[in-house]
Amino acid sequence: MRDKDDIENIKIKSFNSTYFSFIENDVALMRKRFHLTV
After folding, report:
1. CB under 8 Å, gap of 24 or more: what pairs does 15-24 form?
2. With the CA atoms of 30, 32, 36 and 38 taken in that order, what torsion angle do they form, in degrees rounded to the nearest 10?
3. CA dist., res. 28 & res. 35, Å (int)
4. Which one, out of 3, 11, 18, 23, has a CA that is 20 to 30 A from the CA of 29?
């Protein structure tokens, strides 16, 4: 039972980290575009 919970937690953590890095890349792209248009 404990092992299953640990695996789920690891899945959630890895998903969150990839999701947040994805958002950071999006923000960086938007800033680049913004600087190009200004």
Report:
1. none
2. 70
3. 11
4. 11
